[in-house]
Amino acid sequence: MIRVEVRHFTKDDFQMLGELYTAVTSSGQTVFWWVGDEENWPNVFIAVEGERIIGKGQVNIISEIPAGSPQEHQHQIYINLKTLREREDDYTLYDLLYERSLNRAYELKSTLPQSYQTMIGIGNQSTEVINTQYFVSKGFKYSKSLYTMHRQLAGEIDQSALPAPYRYIQWDMPSEENIHEYLAADMEIWPEAPIGLGRFMENRKNRAWTTFIVKENDTLIGSVMAWMDAEGDGVIEDVFVREPWRKQGIAKHLLSQALIYLKKIGSECAELQVETANSSALSLYHAVGFKEVSEEVRYVREL
User: Based on the number of CB atoms within 10 Å of its own CB, is 83 exposed (0-12), middle (13-18) or buried (19 or more)?
Assistant: First the structure.
């Protein structure tokens, strides 16, 4: 019997990782995290059997609550654990990867402000029942679900007008002051799960990353990020308009700018995620041509 070795991912493992990715994703929708840059590899564990990777566990801080926030807010660390299809019910293999990933999660937790509770979570496609059930057996509880929505970029894209006196700006290389301004606005919109500096900087590493913002005089009132993924598809994230400026067409204008940009750089389609319970956002995305293509379910427990 061939022994299973669980260890950190290294640069020599890319070919095997590509084979795992193809095997895991080819037969259906799967939430599979890529390993990222070398600095992220301490968060990545692989299960190797013979000459192939049969499973992978990966951990990341999703949101960090800054000091001074309400005490009930919680840090979020997520795990992504995937195996070959023929091993997806091998919970012994899951245990090997989960133990290493969980230990790493505790290490990451120790780097966060200790005055706030930390939650650990997973996100799976609704069809990944066996994988999700494993985490339920570990005490994870349903949290929320999100639709992934797609829009084809062929044909003309309606360039929604921006009402006066607002102006939009494209930030390809935001300054430190710009980033601070952005993070403050984002924190106002999503105080329980802010994007934070770490994830903001990670997003900036994506191909053709940019962000469009709208200002009234010197006040940032809305924003949207856009970039191109490894397959060449456009990605839209972190769409927001601050409360006093909503229902004026600002979000629609930002989305139109992002879609025009993604088409210009060669993307054939764009995708975004939205909570299934967010009816106002769903209406907006439907209005600009997005359609639901899949549903991700998220489960969490206290770490």
Answer: buried
Q: Is the pLDDT of residue 133 over 90?
A: yes
Q: Residue 198 has what pLDDT?
A: 87
Tens of pLDDT, residue by residue over 41-51, are: 999 999 999 99
Residue 84 structure tokens:
């070959």
Residue 168 backbone phi and psi in degrees, to 5: -110, 150
Between CA 20 and CA 122 the distance in angstroms is 20
Assigned token pair, 184: 């403050």
What mean pLDDT comes out for the span 192-200? 89
Q: Please work out, in degrees rounded to the nearest 5, the angle formed at the alpha carbon of residue 69 by the alpha carbons of 42 and 240.
A: 80
Query: What contacts 170, CB < 8 A, 6 or more positions away?
Result: 210, 211, 212, 257, 261
Q: What is the pLDDT of residue 1?
A: 59
For residue 243 the two structure tokens come to: 């409360």
CA–CA distance, 34 with 205 (Å, rounded to integer): 13
Question: How large is the greatest C-alpha to C-alpha distance in the chain, in angstroms?
Answer: 71
Which of 47, 51, 117, 129 is CA-nearest to residue 88? 129
Q: What is the DSSP code (8-state) at residue 61?
A: E
Which residue intervals of 87-243 are DSSP H helices?
91-109, 129-137, 176-189, 196-204
Among candidate residues 136, 106, 103, the one with its CA nearest the CA of residue 122: 136
- Decide if 101 contacts 79 (C-beta within 8 A): yes
Structure tokens at 4: 């299973």
- The amino acid that residue 77 corresponds to is I
Give residues with Cβ within 8 angstroms of 154, minimum separation 6: 268
Task: Give dist(CA 74, CA 101) in Å, integer.
Answer: 20
